[in-house]
Sequence to fold (219 residues):
Amino acid sequence: MRKITLRSTAGFTLIEVILALGLTALLLGLLSTGVFIVAGDWNRNSDVLDQSLDEALAILQIDRALHGAFPHSFTNEETLSRQVFFSGDEDYLSWVSTVSPQRSAGLTAWELYSVAGEGTYLTMVPAFSDSPRLRLDETEAALLFPGYEVEFSYLYEELDENKVWIEEWEAQELLSLPLAVYARFVPVDDEMELLEIVARVRNNRHRSIQPNDLEIRDL
Fold:
């Protein structure tokens, strides 16, 4: 007589299926959370990198513009005398440069200044044969460095290793430009990086206007 052998088929119970589905959902959740965190870190790092690149490009442009500072002269309508356009103090500077970000022909007037609690602003206008002062005043400034305050110093004298820096320079009175400009962009937030420029002004004297040596010696 043949024996009938019953083979039991191994299968998953309902509890095992539920546990497997729960474990799968947990793993997918952890994976998606990890991807979200990595993506968030990547976006934050990308934003920081973009900001750093923007700051570096802006600093480079200002550095070039200061190196290209030009003793732009104009006629004072009240005195009819020839004057040189360059006005600077501790937190403000306006000058004319041969450098333009748009690479347009002609000279460009630049203006940099700080507003407490906001940052450093930049204004640029064309510099024609007159004073660009009125055009700078009528043009809306752009916030160049949010959270930064700018500080300027002007190289008055350089004898060997001895350098004399001063905090103001008025070319309308001195009839010349400083030997160099030192600009510090100081962040309000300590976690932000200090930005600095030291620009040598090669073309600091007008070809036909003699510097006011008496005013310069009184500095």
